[in-house]
## 1
Amino acid sequence: MVELEQISVRFHYGDGSTLQALDQVSLSIPEGCFVTVVGNNGAGKSTLLNVLAGTLVPTSGRICIAGKEVTHWSEVRRARWIARVFANAAESTCGNLTVAENFAVALRRGEFHGLGWYLKAEERKHIRDQVARLGLGLEAHLDRPMEQLSSGQRQSLSVLMATLTHPKLLLLDEHVANLDPETADRVMALTESLIREEHLTALMVTHEIPYALAYGDRLVAMERGRVLVDLDAAQKREVSEEKLRDLYRSRPASTLALAT
Ligand SMILES: Nc1ncnc2c1ncn2[C@@H]1O[C@H](COP(=O)(O)OP(=O)(O)OP(=O)(O)O)[C@@H](O)[C@H]1O
Ligand SMILES: [Mg+2]
């Protein structure tokens, strides 16, 4: 279970102005729930992921993961529990390291005793088997530098690496946004099967409404730092793309009501 209780984030700028990026956001996400998150630019989606990952300490509110309050845990302390994939493959993987070395880093995420870039023989075999499942032939290129791979290949590996250690929470921030439509579909399907197989709790931010509707068991739409629409699986199946766009687009928060 991941719980956000009245999380607020206020940014303060040099000119004295402030911005309420998250405004009393409360969400309770049961274990194994796959939540898709939509919202316009600046709605607070990445900020929400940042407070969950520990990159950002909320101005107020509490965050609990698996029954433990982690609100003031550092990003490093949470790393063993939380995996994250970004839009840019270069943010999720290290280009200078080989594919195998990237996997070694992913395997030891959150461990404090040194950064082993070396894979033991049985770990290498396990990783080769996992990479082979992608069907991209990359298992033959474990010793190639990551930067020599295409974005789609890198993102596929990123999702695999993120799920490798069974995180308590998987955060996906527009992770297929920079891929061509066909590759994006493939990486999305891979994402879903890994989440389901591992029974992971996941939050996936996307600007693609069709993805937000087709994947996951719950849909959250944000606007101006608030959760405006929170649809369960049944409501999500009922709502049309148009209706959803209508529900959260350019309307003052106070006038929004869920009416599928
Ligand atoms: N580190 C920061 N310092 C100051 N302001 C920030 C910071 N991060 C985000 N903001 C502001 O907070 C608001 C929410 O930003 P956020 O990145 O969460 O939006 P988003 O919903 O992820 O948008 P997008 O779809 O463009 O990625 C924006 O107005 C942004 O300018
Ligand atoms: Mg964002």
## 2
Amino acid sequence: MERERRKAKLLKGSAWWKNCLGRGVCAYCGKRVHPTALTMDHKIPIVRGGTSSRSNCVPACAECNQNKQNLPAEVWRTLLAQR
Ligand SMILES: [Zn+2]
């Protein structure tokens, strides 16, 4: 788990991630937010065995990141849709 957290830190410094943030859109709710307000979210949380790979990391707004917590992305999307 520590290893994946370290990898996430590295990924945050990558050009790929900066490009993701630059779009300024939350991957879950689709809200437009300022790139500095986006946070890295693991679709499959590290505590659930997710990895810090490009395919598992998406930009999320603070609200989604806070409310999603350790839910898998699919579960969070379903909850969002029911609101
Ligand atoms: Zn959001």
